């Protein structure tokens, strides 16, 4: 795996640039603030891992970028891709981008292929939708090429989806998402539904993506281990906001945000001797806590954390972090650095 | 009590717009006929086989008037009364037949699905065979038989209907049982020593019985049509035994050529309205209970304008 | 590694055909048992008033009703295997002849109605599902429910009173007596024979008679198709593969057409096929309403005469026909849906 250093990432224009993106869902109770002000950049050929607990909004962010949100959801902010703001496009422009420039890999491969259509028909449909002038032979060649890259024998080209195992179907999904060589791909928990051995195969494929196609990948997962293996940078998400982002080695070795630290601690590895977990549960996104959203569960919470939202600052070692422990000092009112009372933590525990 | 009321209200509160209206209209329509059925003796001005009052004979095929709101038919009967009494016949027959269906079909399906084996497979084959057969033909055959034994009474017709519809209840309950009995909570129950009877009664029954109300309602709608069909062919209840809308339509058809519309229009409308009411209720319930079809009432999302200062406490 | 699906299609068909045999056996047994349940004996029920006691006894002997039940059962089964469906009591005709003479009428009415129901019902169902909760959806669903709720004899009644006279459309019978007399019965299906004859007036006559009954029955049946198709569309439009197709940028109209509609119609095929079988059952009411000289009308006559032999024979034929139709439907389903073959 080639190591790319900081300068490389900054020397080229980012493929996709998100600024203060919000995605809120409508429900019977009120609006769920699934994504509440997220900003990041992604360079060409770079893989950004998006980690967090279930319900932190990472899946929503991925879907929001592609534009596959359910009824009643609203989004705003700015997502600049190739110089254009994706969020303010017409629906027609948006779906022209999808498949061609923007790709998506879903979580459950078993149900993502039309059971009545052969694999070849899936490829033909996708290719001819975006490149209608291509001849039949060329279309077929591209489809077979995509299969080859995924390690699927060409004899299976005319098979039906149900003739494949889960792992193979996920590889087919990836092949379909990549057949037109999109510049940016969102992979939403691509290995969660698969067993560990297949997971390793998929991770290797995703790794090769960078080498072979210079595709930028947003890898959404709750599995920290995968991020360590397959990603250049990582963004840690909590309750609809990115609390820390930076290069993987740096963030994992030197986490600046308490949540990142606790998340890493609760990961199991061969060195694990005791089970750690973060007490409490993620907040209700209809009515998130005041101030820093993590403060009810944070072991290092201070007074200011309960009243003021932390400000996004540059972290030591590069990247961003938003936590009052990391400053800026100037914005903290007097007495704000006092530790937060214990009983408030206990209340959060019961919630 | 509050919990039960909430449960009943759920189909109404959870659905949005059209689905809710359908349900409401359906319930109202059905309720009207149920009221007619229960209070027939008080609501109907005359008896269903009454052809005179105080010695004065009713007109034959008389047009609607002040004394006979829906007119009279060729047997001197008052059409309005027969429509009201007909509601009682229809509701009675259908309720009876569904009761029999549920009382026999549900336990049968539960036991058969739970124990499996050869008896189960045979039962499934038999039920599928009955189910595959055109239901109306079966109804005809059964009433052909039963009227030979019991005579054209309400019970005979109700039993004919039961015979046709039982396979549906059996199938639904059995299939749900078969998939539910593999659930982990059932395994857990057995692990703590629950007997088969207890497992079936306490764990499976509640789960399995969920699809029965929708089935029963839609069945009821179909049963009304079947009953009317049998009556139309003269195979069900006779005019003097009880009032039956289908049978009345048979007689009405003969008079249609001469422009007599009231003898057929009102019984026919009664059938249409009651069946529509029941179907709406059944479909409305279905939309509620089936999550993929349900459309929730979503509150609209309003993204507030941004402030860039961090002073703001959200 | 498995080869492409079609290899196992013949095997699937064989499986299904083999399954048909026990099914038919069960149905025949049921028909036999059910019809024998009636107390007394069928012969006196049918002919009691017409023949004296000795003649009745002779008849009973001849028809085998004095033999033990098991023997009668076996006799019944083997007769059906030989395609002998018995004879009517009232006029001593082989049931097969009755079916041959009258079946064509029922078939032409049923098929015509079925075609109308499909052509009207499926597109309406697709529309209603695609544009959920729009005005079109509401109206279509309303129509769907009404068409189910209105019995055909009621609509027939309304047509007779309000429509038939002004439009000059016949509401009774299959054709005028002249047509029946002049057309040569080649296939015993008047609708086809009349086209063979090439006689313009006769063809118009038959079609005019067919119009009201077929259209009425067809429109009443299409409600079922509408509701079924609509529900299926709603479910397919929410499915994962539809979303995945959208993610690949397939245009919304193509997604609707190729993924949602096509997949929604597959389960419809099964139901549609089975509906046809049910139509045969509903034919009884239709023929009674419009005085259509088909098998259903005959059946009602035989029932009123308590003609046990005829009833048993006709019901048996219907039963076997239904099983064979569902076999056909299963095969078509396997052709269309590759998952079924496994």
Textual characterization of the structure:
The complex is a heterotrimer of chains A (351), B (314) and C (342). In chain A, helix 4 (119-130) crosses helix 5 and helix 5 crosses helix 6. In chain A, strands 6-7-8-3-9-10-12-11 form an eight-stranded mixed beta sheet, with helices on both faces. Chain A has a four-stranded antiparallel beta sheet with strand order 2-1-4-5, with helices on one face. Chain A has 351 residues and is of the alpha/beta class. Chain A has eleven helices and twelve strands. Chain B is an all-alpha fold. In chain B, 69% of the residues lie in helices and 1% in strands. Chain B has twelve helices and two strands. Chain B has helices at residues 2-14, 17-38, 40-43, 79-115, 117-132, 135-149, 154-180, 184-191, 196-208, 212-232, 245-256, 262-289; strands at residues 52-53, 56-57. In chain B, 49% of the residues are buried. Mean pLDDT of chain B is 82; it is low at 308-314. Chain C has helices at residues 9-36, 42-47, 53-63, 69-81, 95-130, 135-149, 152-167, 177-182, 190-197, 200-237, 240-247, 252-290, 295-304, 308-336. The longest helix of chain C is centred in the last third of the chain and has 39 residues, at 252-290. The model of chain C is unreliable at 1-6 (pLDDT under 50). Chains in contact: A-B, A-C, B-C. The interface between B and C is large, with 53 and 58 residues.
List the helices and strands and how they pair.
The complex is a heterotrimer of chains A (351), B (314) and C (342).
Chain A: H1 6-11, E1 16-26, E2 31-42, E3 47-51, H2 58-66, E4 74-81, E5 84-85, H3 91-97, E6 102-105, H4 119-130, H5 136-149, H6 166-178, E7 184-188, H7 196-213, E8 216-221, H8 224-230, E9 233-238, E10 241-247, H9 248-253, H10 258-265, E11 312-314, E12 320-322, H11 342-350
Chain B: H1 2-14, H2 17-38, H3 40-43, E1 52-53, E2 56-57, H4 79-115, H5 117-132, H6 135-149, H7 154-180, H8 184-191, H9 196-208, H10 212-232, H11 245-256, H12 262-289
Antiparallel strand pairs in B: 1-2
Helix pairs in contact in B: 2-4, 2-12, 4-7, 4-10, 4-12, 5-7, 6-7, 7-9, 7-10, 8-9, 10-11, 10-12, 11-12
Chain C: H1 9-36, H2 42-47, H3 53-63, H4 69-81, H5 95-130, H6 135-149, H7 152-167, H8 177-182, H9 190-197, H10 200-237, H11 240-247, H12 252-290, H13 295-304, H14 308-336
Helix pairs in contact in C: 1-14, 5-6, 5-10, 5-12, 6-10, 7-12, 9-10, 10-12, 11-12, 12-13, 12-14, 13-14
């Amino acid at each position: 795996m080639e190591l790319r250093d900081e300068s490389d990432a900054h020397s080229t224009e980012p493929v996709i640039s998100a600024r203060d993106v919000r995605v809120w869902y409508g429900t019977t109770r009120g609006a769920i603030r699934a994504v509440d002000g997220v900003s990041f950049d992604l360079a060409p050929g770079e893989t950004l891992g998006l980690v967090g607990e279930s319900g932190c909004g990472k899946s929503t962010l991925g879907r929001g970028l592609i534009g596959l949100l359910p009824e009643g959801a609203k989004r705003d902010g700015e997502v600049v891709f190739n110089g254009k703001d994706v969020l303010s496009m017409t629906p027609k422009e948006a779906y022209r981008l999808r498949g061609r420039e923007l790709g998506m890999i879903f979580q459950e491969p078993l149900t993502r292929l039309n059971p009545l259509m052969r694999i070849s028909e899936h490829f033909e449909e996708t290719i001819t939708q975006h490149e209608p002038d291509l001849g039949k032979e060329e279309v077929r060649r591209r489809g077979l090429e995509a299969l080859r890259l995924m390690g699927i024998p060409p004899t299976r080209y005319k098979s039906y989806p149900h003739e494949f195992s889960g792992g193979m179907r996920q590889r087919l999904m990836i092949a379909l998402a990549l057949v037109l060589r999109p510049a940016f791909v969102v992979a939403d928990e691509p290995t969660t539904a698969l067993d560990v051995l297949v997971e390793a195969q998929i991770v290797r494929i995703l790794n090769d993506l960078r080498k072979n196609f210079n595709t930028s990948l947003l890898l959404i997962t709750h599995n920290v281990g995968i991020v360590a293996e397959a990603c250049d940078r990582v963004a840690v998400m909590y309750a609809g906001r990115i609390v820390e982002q930076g290069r993987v080695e740096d963030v994992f070795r030197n986490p600046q945000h308490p949540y990142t630290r606790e998340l890493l601690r609760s990961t199991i590895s061969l060195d694990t001797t005791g089970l750690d977990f973060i007490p409490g549960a993620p907040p209700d996104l209809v009515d998130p806590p005041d101030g820093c959203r993590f403060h009810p569960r944070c072991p290092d919470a201070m007074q200011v954390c309960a009243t003021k939202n932390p400000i996004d600052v540059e972290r030591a070692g590069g990247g961003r972090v938003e936590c009052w422990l990391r400053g800026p000092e100037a914005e903290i009112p007097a007495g704000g650095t006092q530790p937060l009372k214990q009983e408030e933590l206990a209340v959060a525990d019961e919630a | 009590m509050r919990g039960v009321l909430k449960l009943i209200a759920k189909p109404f509160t959870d659905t949005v717009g059209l689905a809710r209206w359908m349900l409401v209209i359906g319930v109202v329509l059905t309720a009207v006929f149920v009221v007619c059925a229960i209070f027939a003796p008080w609501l109907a001005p005359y008896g269903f086989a009454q052809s005179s009052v105080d010695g004065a004979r009713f007109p034959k095929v008389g047009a609607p008037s002040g004394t006979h709101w829906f007119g009279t038919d060729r047997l001197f009967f008052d059409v309005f009364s027969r429509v009201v009494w007909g509601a009682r016949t229809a509701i009675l027959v259908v309720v009876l037949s569904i009761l029999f269906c549920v009382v026999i079909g549900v336990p049968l399906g539960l036991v058969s699905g739970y124990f499996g084996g050869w008896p189960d497979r045979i039962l499934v084959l038999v039920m599928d065979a009955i189910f595959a057969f055109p239901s109306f033909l079966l109804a005809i055959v059964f009433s052909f038989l039963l009227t030979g034994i019991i005579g054209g009474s309400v019970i005979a017709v109700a039993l004919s209907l039961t015979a046709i519809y039982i396979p549906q209840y059996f199938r639904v309950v059995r299939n749900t049982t078969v998939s539910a009995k593999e659930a982990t909570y059932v395994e857990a129950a057995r692990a703590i020593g629950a007997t088969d009877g207890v497992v079936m009664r306490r764990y499976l029954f509640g789960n399995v019985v969920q699809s029965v109300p929708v089935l029963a309602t839609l069945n009821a709608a179909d049963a009304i049509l079947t009953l009317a069909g049998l009556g139309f062919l003269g195979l069900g209840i006779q005019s003097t035994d009880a009032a039956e809308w289908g049978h009345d339509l048979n007689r009405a058809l003969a008079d249609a050529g001469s422009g007599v519309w009231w003898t057929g229009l009102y019984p026919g409308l009664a059938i249409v309205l009651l069946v529509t009411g029941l179907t709406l209720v059944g479909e409305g319930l279905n939309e509620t209970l089936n999550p993929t079809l349900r459309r929730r009432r979503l509150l609209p999302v309003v993204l507030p304008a941004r402030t860039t200062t961090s002073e703001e406490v959200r | 590694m498995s080869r492409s699906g079609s290899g196992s299609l013949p095997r699937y068909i064989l499986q299904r055909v083999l399954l048909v045999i026990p099914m038919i056996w069960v149905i025949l047994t049921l028909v036999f048992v059910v019809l024998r349940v009636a107390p007394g004996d069928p012969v006196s029920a049918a002919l009691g008033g017409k023949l004296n006691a000795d003649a009745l006894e002779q008849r009973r002997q001849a028809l085998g009703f004095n033999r033990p039940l098991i023997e009668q059962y076996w006799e019944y089964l083997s007769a059906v295997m030989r395609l002998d469906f018995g004879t009517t009591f009232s006029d001593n005709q082989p049931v097969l002849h009755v079916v041959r003479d009258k079946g064509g009428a029922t078939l032409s009415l049923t098929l015509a109605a079925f075609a109308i129901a499909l052509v009207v019902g499926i597109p309406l169902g697709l529309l209603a599902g695609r544009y959920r909760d729009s005005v079109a959806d509401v109206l279509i669903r309303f129509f769907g429910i009404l068409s189910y709720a209105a019995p055909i004899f009621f609509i027939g009644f309304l047509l007779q009173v309000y429509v038939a006279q002004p439009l000059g459309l016949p509401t009774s019978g299959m054709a005028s007596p002249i047509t029946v007399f002049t057309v040569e019965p080649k296939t015993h299906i008047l609708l086809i024979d009349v086209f063979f004859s090439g006689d313009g007036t006769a063809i118009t006559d038959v079609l005019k008679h067919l119009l009201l009954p077929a259209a009425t029955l067809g429109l009443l049946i299409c409600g079922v198709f509408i509701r079924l198709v609509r529900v299926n569309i709603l479910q397919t439009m929410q499915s994962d593969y539809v979303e995945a197709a959208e993610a690949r940028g397939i245009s919304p109209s193509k997604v609707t057409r190729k993924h949602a509609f096509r997949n929604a119609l597959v389960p419809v095929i099964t139901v549609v096929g089975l509906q046809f079988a049910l139509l045969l059952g509903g034919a009884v009411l239709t023929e009674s309403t419009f005085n259509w000289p088909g098998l259903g009308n005959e059946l009602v006559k035989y029932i009123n005469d308590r003609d046990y032999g005829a009833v048993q024979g006709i019901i048996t034929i219907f039963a076997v026909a239904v099983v064979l139709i569902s076999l056909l439907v299963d095969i078509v389903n396997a052709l269309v849906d590759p998952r079924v073959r496994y």
